[in-house]
Amino acid sequence: MTRCMPQSLLLVVAVAALIVCPIATDHSVAGTPDEITARLSTEVDALDGASASLKTFIKETLIPHCTNPVFVSSVAAQNAKGVSLQGIQEVDTQWIEAEDELAIHKELMSNACAQEIGKIAKEHSAVGETFVMDNQGANVGQNELTSDYWQGDEPKWQDSFKDGQGAVALSKPKLDKSTGEVDQKVSLPIIDDNGNVIGVVCFGLNPNDL
Which residue of 11, 131, 135, 205 has the smallest Cβ count within 10 Å? Predict the structure, then answer.
């Protein structure tokens, strides 16, 4: 004869099972770095209004920088500081209202991330204003002073970070008020070794120099 297990004992067994075999959770890993960059290349192929030369430049020259070790380490270090969005927005206000150079202006134009951007721009004449952002859209490094510090409320960051999944974001050519030149923005995710999208890099390109 089969005896029924008391309900209290069933509850204990169920809880123990959850402890021993926890339910899998989503850690927002978008894939391996190779899988993500391959997907990005496919997205580039499908871009409307992009010339063949622009698509080739993005795939062959820019996408490899999604895993640029200097960008990855710089973004990871800033993310690790755990600055609140309110804190970022306070810096953004100071940045926008500043009439003289701030210490943070000098820092973000000269740090390791900025130096790496400078090397890329020197190697490729089509690359103009370029800046790297963290997982909230705050600037990490740049080669030209941007008009604001926080980019988290703008498509260049939102469409590329894409809730931690990463995507290609391409704007239409237009006048950049911070540089006074016409360029086209290409935003790509920064991907760490574990396949986490941790930030975004935005390249300002002159299509005529491709």
Answer: 11
Q: What is the largest CA-CA distance in the chain?
A: 87
Distance, CA of 115 to CA of 130 (rounded, Å): 11
Q: Are 53 and 177 in contact (CB under 8 A)?
A: no
Give residue 176's Cα distance to chain centre: 20
Which residues are within 8 A (CB) of 72 and not within 5 positions of it... i.e. 6 or more apart? Answer: 190, 191, 192, 193, 198
Sequence-ordered list of residues with C-beta below 8 angstroms from that of 125, at least 6 positions apart, any chain: 206, 209
User: What are the structural domains of the chain?
Assistant: 31-209 (3.30.450.20)
d(Cα 191, Cα 75) in Å, to the nearest integer?
10
Based on its alpha-carbon atoms, the radius of gyration of the chain, rounded to whole angstroms, reads 22
| Structure token digits, residue 25 | 């959770």
For tokens 């202006």, name the residue. Answer: 105
Nearest CA among 136, 184, 178, 129 for reference residue 157: 136
* Backbone dihedral angles phi then psi of residue 31, each to the nearest 5 degrees: 135, -175
**What whole-number distance in Å separates Cα of residue 35 and Cα of residue 33?**
5
Percentages (nearest 5) of helix, strand, coil residues in the chain:
45, 20, 35
- The pLDDT tens digits of the residues spanning 152-207 come to 999 999 999 999 999 999 999 887 776 677 789 999 999 999 999 999 999 999 98
